[in-house]
Amino acid sequence: MKEAGGNSHLTAMESNRGATNGSGGGDSPRVADAQASRFDLILPFLEPIRHLIEDDGISEIMVNGGQRVFIERDGLLQEAPGIVIEERQLLTGLKIIARSLGDEISEEQPILDSRLPDGSRVAAVLPPCSVDGISLTIRKFGTRHFTMDDLIERGSVPRPAADLLRDRIGRRQNILISGGTGTGKTTLLGILAAAIPDDDRIVLIEDTAEIHAAKPNLVRFEARREVPGLQAVAIRDLVRASLRHRPDRLIVGEIRGEEAYDLLQALNTGHSGSLSTIHANTARQAVTRLRSCILQAGLDIPHRALQAQIADSIQVIVHLERTGGRRHIAEIVEIAGFDADSDRHQFNPLYQSG
Fold first, then answer.
1. Boundaries of CATH 3.40.50.300 in the chain?
2. Which residues contact 239 (CB under 8 A, 6 or more apart)?
3. Does residue 264 register a pLDDT over 80?
4. Fold observed for domain 29-139
5. Which of 11, 15, 123, 189 could disulfide-link to 210, CB 3.0 to 4.6 Å?
6. What is the reported pLDDT for 257?
7. What is the location of CATH 3.30.450.90 in the chain?
8. How many CB atoms lie within 10 A of CB 9?
9. CA 250-120-259 angle, 5° bins
10. 310 φ/ψ sector (left φ>0, alpha ψ -120 to 50, else beta)
């Protein structure tokens, strides 16, 4: 975490390149030699932006048609002038990236959404879908794992808010972290996971393994996209499977769709003290978004019954925002219940940023 214009911020560059599943503390094992060789294979084709990829201070790299390159440093977007990538070279590099990860990008399949060997996310779109040439965005993940004390020291999280969240973790309350892209949801999720007592058995479920959780009794599951010869394994499948592994707490990296229903059932059946994140613009909107994800399961759940279940299942919502490059906790609210007559959830504010 670095300061930008005098303001400290949460960073979204928290990662743990874990295995598809396994148990034990610390980073999940991936074969280091395989990572190195894959990265060495890719970098020659991305030579014009090699220095950006290798710069730990840069969290995101955006290539617009090969002619203009932008980066995010310390939470602020800025242009990296004087960099031009020849389109044929860029296309070759993207094809190697895709194939090395069992993926494909071509005229027939012009959209790539994958990740580099070091765990960084890579997204690309080819012409003619990308009108001005190949578009490439790399979202990097650093190797430093921040603690709550780090965020307090830098002013990203006030001590009263940190103490409040630690207390709610200790009381086994279910916490949902909301915010937009790049607001630091994954980082805070990992930090809150660190506050879980070591005696608890945790099952951590992610779409892409990136959360650092150094816990002695930890099982990690990672989703898998469909590839030739292998069927997809969705987050929903893993949430269901996790219940057969005797978890005390569940951590779901991000709620995006129908897995929300299965997580809701788990939270209502003894897995208190669980954590997850969701994209939303406010803490209250996070409840609406959660309800929409639950309904994607296609089950006929009465509206008021669903609203009541959400109130019973989620106790605390932590909302993060990014303002002028500064990532911070904007508010913490408690769901106090659901009023069926007014069809509204009741919220108690616990913390509000100044």
1. 148-352
2. 205, 250, 252, 259, 262, 263, 266
3. yes
4. Beta-Lactamase (3.30.450)
5. 15
6. 94
7. 29-139
8. 25
9. 30
10. alpha
Least confident window among 12-21, 194-203, 298-307, 331-340: 12-21
Q: What is the mean pLDDT of the chain?
A: 84
CA atoms within 13 A on the CB side of 43: 13
For residues 58 and 51, what is the distance between their CA atoms, to the nearest angstrom? 10
Mean pLDDT of 209-231: 87
Residue 131 has a pLDDT of 93
Alpha carbon distance, N-terminus to C-terminus of the chain = 21
Answer CATH for 148-352 from 3.40.50.620, 3.40.630.30, 3.40.50.300, 2.40.10.120: 3.40.50.300
Report residue 32 as tokens: 């280091």
Report which residue type is found at 64.
N
Alpha-carbon distance values, 325 to 1, 119, 141 (Å): 12, 23, 17
Instruction: Calculate mean pLDDT across residues 231-254.
Output: 95
Tens digits of residue pLDDT in 300-344? 899 999 999 999 999 999 999 988 777 899 999 999 999 999 999
